[in-house]
Amino acid sequence: MLLAIDVGNTNTVLGIFDGETLEHSWRVKTDPRSTADELWLLYRSLVADYEVDVLAVCSTVPATLRELRTMIKSYFSGMQVTIVEPGIKTGVPLLVDNPKEIGADRIVNTLAAHTLYGGPAIVVDFGTSTNLDVVSPNGEFLGGALAPGIEISVDALASRAAQLRKVELVLPRSVIGKNTVEALQSGTIYGFAGQVDGLVDRITVELEATYGQRPTVIATGGLAPLVFGIAETIDHHEPDLTLIGLRLIHEKNR
């Protein structure tokens, strides 16, 4: 079985694949201070019921990636391992000014989105930052837009405004909040939905001018459920998009 590990700045997502079937997935907190041994103890406890024989990894956290390499060397020696980094075949041309700047997760999501939905496409990844990654009809990564993530914005507001605080991110009774909590919930959830819709609309204009096609818009990331169904431009919610992309990249490098 394939163990796919996607290390993000806030959360790490792990998934077990039996062939093309995702058997189970887990979401845990990313702690860049974790050592290789601590990572091994955590991951082993999660996948204890599965026979893992291959690994596929991507990481946007250099400290954790370093410890992951040590963990793999110590506990997975002899096992086939695919780490998304320069030199790995992804099948995704990067049509940007500096390809080295592009995070591994954005490349992985591009491959998965094009494989599942074709192109053009826009992947909206709701994580530590909100990433909009644009995919051409040929599966090329065209660039995109980056914005502060939902939780970062809520934390910043609570820390900078004396009378405001962190609130549970659920839909309020109405867009017009009747109290401070509901006003914060409305501004956060409907505000981010509007931000996504505005960016998608502007990107769509450029894509239609170039390719004559409206893009498919796919939401992913841990905070996507907050906005999916509210943002009017999102067509699909694919919570396991990055894990699927890791499986696809592993297959390209077998």
Automatic annotation (TrEMBL):
<dbReference type="GO" id="GO:0004594">
    <property type="term" value="F:pantothenate kinase activity"/>
</dbReference>
<dbReference type="InterPro" id="IPR004619">
    <property type="entry name" value="Type_III_PanK"/>
</dbReference>
<keyword id="KW-0808">Transferase</keyword>
<keyword id="KW-0067">ATP-binding</keyword>
<keyword id="KW-0547">Nucleotide-binding</keyword>
<comment type="similarity">
    <text>Belongs to the type III pantothenate kinase family.</text>
</comment>
<dbReference type="InterPro" id="IPR043129">
    <property type="entry name" value="ATPase_NBD"/>
</dbReference>
<keyword id="KW-0963">Cytoplasm</keyword>
<keyword id="KW-0418">Kinase</keyword>
<dbReference type="GO" id="GO:0015937">
    <property type="term" value="P:coenzyme A biosynthetic process"/>
</dbReference>
<dbReference type="GO" id="GO:0005737">
    <property type="term" value="C:cytoplasm"/>
</dbReference>
<keyword id="KW-0173">Coenzyme A biosynthesis</keyword>
<dbReference type="Pfam" id="PF03309">
    <property type="entry name" value="Pan_kinase"/>
</dbReference>
<protein>
    <recommendedName>
        <fullName>Type III pantothenate kinase</fullName>
    </recommendedName>
</protein>
<comment type="subunit">
    <text>Homodimer.</text>
</comment>
<dbReference type="GO" id="GO:0005524">
    <property type="term" value="F:ATP binding"/>
</dbReference>
<keyword id="KW-0630">Potassium</keyword>
